[in-house]
Structures are given as structure tokens and as C-alpha cells.
Amino acid sequence: MDTAFVTSKQQRTWREIRDYLMIALAMTCYSIGWTVFLLPNHITTGGVPGIASVVFWATGINVQYTYFVINGLLLIAAFIILGWKFVVKTVFAVVWMTLFLPIVQHATDGWNLLHDQPFMACVIGAALCGSGVGIALSNNGSSGGTDIVAAIVNKYRDITLGRVILLTDVIIISSSYFVLHNWEMLIYGYAALFICSFMVDQVVNSARQSVQFFIVSKKYEEIGRHINKDLHRGVTYIDGVGAYTGLNVKMMFVLAKKRESTTIFRLIKDIDPNAFVSQSAVIGVFGEGFDKIKVK
Asked: Which of 8, 35, 114, 265 has the most Cβ atoms closer than 10 angstroms to its Cβ?
């Protein structure tokens, strides 16, 4: 069997395992933020958790049941539009959080963290929830609810995930007034929504941030071959002439994810420590291996 094929298969398997581990971490963060800081302080969050919170305050039905049922309906739509891979990971996220929520509630039963400081509870809870959503979306998953709606819209339009979530959640948070009859809690709910959407964009955009390299080295062929093989990134060779020496040189142009920068630097240092390297951030990269072009 081809060694390269085996290595590639192992890499794909590890990436899938890593996605599930990160989604589990994301849902754990969301569960803590929601049930420890927001729910006990009557601060409404957005999406299906927001609906579940309103139902809980109105009827006493545990949040995990409402959360699970509504997400089941949304997952059918996600399966049709986004494909089975997104749905499988979202199902994992929904099931993980459904099972983890009662554990957190039982473990923190009787706690009144920041009960007299609702703003701090709002900031901490929303930051944890937003980070959880962002981590899940960055690893090809979702916590369900409006995250699914955001992912569907983002697939066809170049609108940030946080903005879609923000727009779809305003109505949900506004509805909490009819149960709580408290304008102060409603304002905290809006604040939590903005913080959550901000955190989603920060986490997702940091994961998608790209960089470009210009590399000049006498060992350009070896460096380029390893970048292709080890990072699966394309390398473009550009002919140039040194103004000082007048000698012909080969310059490499490489686009990569920011998280891959350290690997590229290590690779270059191992092959040619005297290579000349220029790295810069880019606003957006669209094409194979990066983002898809989405226009109206």
C-alpha cells in the first residue's frame, strides 16, 4: 500500500478526531456559560437556548428537553442543505450538550455566582457561550439552533456568522419580556447577545486568518517540495534578479493559514537557515484550500 496514502488517511482520521474533541470542549464552555452564569440570573441568551430559557421560566420544563426537540427539527433542514458531515458533528454537539447540561446543573445546584452582579454574570456567561459557538463552527460543527441558520446563510452569502446570529436572536431575546416582565433583564439579554456575537466572530476569524510568505533561498526546490508534501499548500516560483548582486534568484510565494506559520518557519530553518523570508497578513484568501467566493 502507498505510504503517502496511509499517511494521508491517518491525517484525515486525526483531523476528524480533533474536530470532535474541540466540539466537545466548545459545548462544555457553552453549557457552563449558559447554566452557571446566564440562566440562574434570568439573563436570556439567543437561539434555541434562549427559547429553552423562556420556556423554563414560564413552565419549569428543563432546558435540555426543549433544546433537544427544537434542534431535531433544524437538523433535518441542515441535512438537506449543508450535508451529512455537518449534521453528524452537530448531532454530536447537541447530544453532548443535552447530556452535559443536567450534570452542570446538578454540580452547581445551590450556587448563586454573581447573583448581585448581573452585568459581570452577563459578560462572563456570554463570553463563554460565544467562544463555545465559535470553536464549534471553526471545527465544522455547531451547537444547533441559530448556528445552523447562520451556517446556511454563510454558505451562500458573504455575511459573517456573528451578524446572522445577532439578527436572528433579537426576536428571541425580546420575547423574554413577556415572561420576566423586567426591562433590566431584557437589556442584559441584548448585551449578552452582542458579546456572544462578537466572540463568535473573533474566534472564527482568528481561525480563518491567512498569511502570505515570500521566500528567497538557494534550496527553493527542497523547501517548496516539503511545503507541498507536509502542509498540502501550493507554492509558486517567481523569477527575479537581485538588484545588488545582479544574480538570478527564485522567489517562492506561499499562502497559508496563520496557525501554519510556525510549521513553515521551522521547515525553512531546518532546510536553509540563511533563507530570506517575508511574512505578512492578508485580509482574505479565496480559492482551493481557503474560503469560497460568495457574492450576491
From this structure: 35
